[in-house]
Amino acid sequence: MKKTLLLSIALLLTIFSTNAQTHSEKEHSEKEHSEKEHSEKINYVVLTRQVPQLKPILLAAEELAKQDGKNFGDFQVVVCGKTVQELTNEEAMKVFLEQAEEAGVTINACGFSLKKFGVDKTKLHPNIKVADNGILYNFELQKKGYLSIEL
Q1: Which of 6, 80, 101, 136 shows the greatest Cβ crowding within 10 Å of its Cβ?
Q2: Which pLDDT belongs to residue 118?
Q3: Which residues pair with 149 in a beta bridge?
Q4: How many CA atoms lie within 13 A of 5 on its CB side?
Q5: Quick check: 78 and 47 in contact, CB under 8 A?
Q6: Is the Cβ–Cβ distance between 51 and 78 less than 8 Å?
Q7: By C-alpha distance, which of 140, 7, 32 is closest to 76?
Q8: Which residues of the chain have pLDDT under 50?
Q9: Of 71, 85, 143, which is closest to residue 117 (Cα–Cα)?
Q10: What is the pLDDT of residue 12?
Q11: Angle of the 90-103 helix axis to the 54-68 helix axis, nearest 10
Q12: At 131, phi and psi to the nearest 5?
């Protein structure tokens, strides 16, 4: 009888000890995952065919920077299509370029679109980068883990 009681107590202690250890390991693993998740930068890319959409895109970038805090990473905009012609309009682009610089946003023009619509790359503001193929560039960033949207 004593043996059975001692074995039962030992068995219960083993079960409770294993459960506590498993629970502790699970909490530790979840905490590590959460810390890792929050220490990685969050990057964004937006493909647009309309220059006026830069305003809401830049506002979204500013808000995401606030929400993400120190986890806010890179924010890229790719402008494709006929609207690349508007990128050379210094007056129209001035406000967008200032806002993009303040928000840490990179504006890219699609090289294919520039060629197709006869836009001289040298007429672009120095802060506007050229991606040879805007769609391919967008996919490459997505493969690197960038969150993406097309407008």
Answers
A1: 80
A2: 97
A3: 46
A4: 2
A5: yes
A6: no
A7: 140
A8: 11-12, 34-36
A9: 85
A10: 47
A11: 10
A12: -100, 120
Question: What is the C-alpha to C-alpha distance for residues 69 and 62, in angstroms, rounded to an integer?
Answer: 11
pLDDT score recorded for residue 151 = 86
Question: Which strands sit side by side in the sheet containing 72-79, from one edge to the other?
Answer: 128-131, 105-110, 72-79, 42-48, 147-150
pLDDT in tens, 100-126: 999 999 999 999 999 999 999 999 999
Distances (CA, A) of 91 to 86, 87, 88, 95, 119: 10, 10, 9, 8, 17
CB 145 within 8 A of CB 43: yes
Q: What is the pTM of this model?
A: 0.73
pLDDT the model gives residue 133: 96
- pLDDT for 52: 94
Q: How far apart are CA 6 and CA 98, in angstroms?
A: 77
User: In degrees to the nearest 10, what's the CA dihedral of 81, 87, 93, 99?
Assistant: 60
Q: What is the DSSP letter of 83?
A: G
CA distances to 24, 29, 33, 38, 61 from 21, in Å: 5, 12, 18, 26, 43
CB neighbour class for 39 (10 Å; exposed up to 12, middle 13-18, buried from 19):
exposed
Determine the residue type at 54: L
